[in-house]
Amino acid sequence: MFKSFSVVGGFSVPSQTVFIFGVMFALLGSLQMASAQAADTAKPNIVLILTDDMGYGDVGIYGHPTIKTPHIDSLAIGGQKWTSFYVASSVCTPSRAALMTGRMPIRNGMCSNVRRVLWQSSKGGLQPSEVTMAESLQASGYATACIGKWHLGHSEAKYLPTSQGFDYYYGIPYSNDMDKTQTITKEDYLNPRIGHYNVPLLENESIVERPVDQTTITQRYTAKAVEFIRDRAERPFFLFLSHSMPHAPLFASQEYLGKSERGIYGDVIEEIDWSVGEVVRTLDEEGLTENTLVIFTSDNGPWMMLDQHGGSSGLLRGGKGETWEGGYRVPAIFSWPGRIEPGVIGELGSTVDLFKTFSTITGCAYPDDRVMDGYDLSATLLKAEKSPREVIWYYQGQDLQAVRMGDYKVIFSLNEYVGFREKKTTIFQKALVYNLSVDPAERYNLAATHSSVIEKARGLIGEHRDSLGEIFDYLAPLPEDH
Ligand code: MG
């Protein structure tokens, strides 16, 4: 209690002084206790754990039969497990841009029909004029760290996490399969070698290792996360722990290699589960559990073109890069003991909503000078009330292909894989309609009897398009960038 008092008061004082303060504090009575606790929860810490390409079905509590995730599962059991939680894109860069800014990629320019994501040779990135959740939290007094994958720009310092609201950065700045040293075949993905991927490890703006020894990267991210929590400088903190995996190529440490029943993919997830356990244990040891919101989710669905090295979307159809549910619907777990109303939540939510929700919970500023796309999920989290979100957009690059409105999803066109690195786009003469409450696997097209649903979707899309204004593309190659 004494230690947490020093934290909530924002004091940086010697431990003996903290002890004396603590004794005084204990004597002051319940009124002061109540106000101190109010201050305590006024600025809770936030730990946002994001995995890369982990599918809806890849976590124990989301139904995987052989991947064991006891630490992730226990967060869900004590908190909320969401079953209709989405990302803004079925690939990395646009999904992450929306998460960070609370704006759809079509608004912040981080989606393209030329390049789906930023490549190592890309010159662009998330524009400095965008306001990230980290910038807002930082401005309201939070210590902030990004540990792991960034993938929102790296060609210039202005695009790096340290210029986008994070006090500290440690990680591989883009996907772990970039900087290829040779043509990588599917066979190479399935037999990964460190030397095939000359990816850098950055600490703040400096390269500290290249190529990265990816077998220990999950452990090293975890050590940095634990260190950041322990050395938090007596301020509230925002930790964005963004694992590079299970994006392929897959690597696990000696402790986890061969440990799971699910092969290397399961080894990777079980090591990430261990990492979640380490973060939770550190919060406990530091007396921070009851003042820390922990979120566990994924940036997009599983990369199924990689067979067993890609994950599973469980009962959902499709995966990464596709328009089906499996590309966009992800596991999402919220834990905040004593504050979150525990349960399984079937309401709609999105990573786009996290910024707005953090703003309500912490009091950090939320931009009001531009169109924002987030909804405040705090009443659902804290009181299990209905979510304000009613619509999910499914973009591929800059093309809007489908929309979910309540239970119904209407698909006007879709992308799906037909082979290794091979996708096709289908444009439907008459849209497809699915009732996702009855048919989450998108098997039974109701278009013949649901014309009014299609018309409603057309109307919504028209309104949405009218709200877009000028569209930018910060992912496409520049003339000198091949
Ligand atoms: Mg991804």
Explain what this protein looks like in three dimensions.
- It is a single chain.
- The chain has 482 residues and is an alpha/beta fold.
- Helix content is 29%, strand content 20%.
- It contains 14 helices and 14 strands.
- The chain has helices at 2-8, 15-27, 30-42, 70-78, 92-101, 105-108, 133-139, 186-190, 217-230, 263-285, 325-328, 354-362, 378-383, 451-466, and strands at 45-51, 80-86, 143-148, 168-171, 201-203, 206-209, 237-242, 292-298, 332-335, 343-350, 391-396, 399-405, 408-419, 422-435.
- The chain has a ten-stranded mixed sheet with strand order 6-5-4-3-7-1-8-9-2-10, sandwiched between helices. Strands 11-12-13-14 form a four-stranded antiparallel sheet.
- The radius of gyration is 22 Å and the shape is globular.
- The N and C termini lie far apart (57 Å).
- Residues 1-40 have low confidence and may be disordered.
- The structure holds magnesium ion.
- Magnesium ion binds next to loops.
Q: Quick summary of this structure?
A:
The chain is of the alpha/beta class. It is 29% helix and 20% strand. Helix 1 crosses helix 2 (15-27) and helix 9 (217-230) packs parallel to helix 10.
Rounded Rg: 22 Å
pLDDT < 50 stretches: 1-40
Order of helices and strands: HHHEHEHHHEEHEEHEHEHEEHHEEEEH
> Fraction of residues in helices?
25-40%
Task: Kindly estimate the percentage of residues that lie in beta strands according to DSSP.
Answer: 15-25%
> Overall 3D geometry?
globular
